[in-house]
Automatic annotation (TrEMBL):
Protein name, entry field: Superoxide dismutase copper/zinc binding domain-containing protein
Domain of life assignment: Eukaryota
Residues annotated as signal peptide: 1-21
Keyword Signal: yes
Pfam family, one: Sod_Cu
A single GO BP: superoxide metabolic process
Listed PANTHER family: AGAP001623-PA, SUPEROXIDE DISMUTASE COPPER_ZINC BINDING DOMAIN-CONTAINING PROTEIN
Organism: Linnemannia gamsii
Keyword Transcription regulation: no
GO-annotated molecular function: metal ion binding
Keyword vocabulary terms for this entry: Signal
Region (Disordered): 183-209
Length: 233
């Protein structure tokens, strides 16, 4: 069997990255997630703030989050950092629950008290992605001092970003170092069969994935997971 060059490049990129994830990225670096599935194209960039003070987060949605598609009465889409990578075939359910190293659990996040929210509950702390007529959302940026780039249970390295439509997972993408995420071959996964699964009980799961578990899971996920190139900041 002859492997396509794009697949080989993806395997090499993941192998390189998972070694960094296992060492917990001792030197903080810009991380990114590029989502391109089910008509939803979005970029998330996490830039370390000085003195290990969290991250500057930049979000841009290029397509897919339209008012026609939105189910929530608020017309918004939730999005979170989940504890595990995306599974083969862009399986968003494989991402597990929210990144929650302090075990906040399913308690509702109050934006005014972000220290009491799950680390990965980005929409709870900073607001949902509001649907538009076209499905594109202009870039937004904010600081989140509770995001970490190191620590086995706290780092965002090797995890994933998941977008929800009233609780249902509709799109997802792994979190890579920015230079690697932007160099992966582009690829759309229209109609991925396992994207539209409800959160259910996994919403409150903790972040007990170890560096070794992240490596093993990402190795399994690479066969079905490809990413679109990030647009220039």
């Amino acid at each position: 069997m002859i492997l396509k060059s794009s697949f080989i490049l993806s395997v090499a990129a993941v192998a390189s990255y998972t070694c960094q994830a296992q060492s917990q990225l001792v030197v903080p670096q810009i991380m990114a997630s590029a989502i391109n599935m089910n008509g939803i194209e979005a970029n998330f960039v996490f830039s370390p703030l000085s003195n290990n003070g969290g991250a500057r987060v930049r979000v841009e949605v290029k397509s897919g989050l339209s008012k026609k598609f939105a189910v929530s009465p608020t017309g918004g889409f939730e999005y979170h950092i989940h504890v595990k990578p995306v599974g083969p075939g862009n399986d968003c359910t494989a991402a597990g629950g929210h990144l929650d190293p302090t075990n906040v659990g399913a308690a509702k996040c109050v934006a005014a008290k972000p220290d009491r929210c799950q680390e990965g509950d980005l929409s709870g702390k900073h607001g949902e992605l509001k649907a538009t007529e076209t499905g594109a959302i202009a870039p937004i940026s904010y600081n989140d001092k509770y995001i970490h780039f190191s620590g086995e249970t706290t780092t965002i390295a090797g995890r994933s970003v998941v977008i929800h439509n009233n609780g249902t997972r509709v799109a997802c993408g792994n979190i890579y170092p920015f230079d690697q995420a932007s160099s992966l071959p582009s690829g759309s996964s229209e109609g991925a069969s396992k994207a539209g699964s409800p959160d259910g009980d996994v919403r409150s799961q903790g972040s007990g994935a170890s560096g070794g578990q992240l490596v093993a899971t990402m190795a399994m996920a690479v066969a079905g997971t490809f990413f679109g190139a990030l647009m220039a900041l």
